[in-house]
Amino acid sequence: MTPESKRGLLRDILLQVPFMLWLVLLWVLLWHQFTPLALVTGILVAIFVTRVFRLPTVELVGRVNLWYTLVFIVLFLGAVVAGAVSVTLQVFDLRRQPGAAIIEIPLRYADDIVTTHVAVTASLIPGSLVVESDRDRRVLYLHVIGVRSRADVDRFRDDVLRWERRIVRAVGTPQQYAALKADLNRGRDAAKVDALSEGRETRGGAR
Question: In terms of Cα–Cα distance, which of 167, 67, 46 is closest to 117?
Answer without folding.
Answer: 167
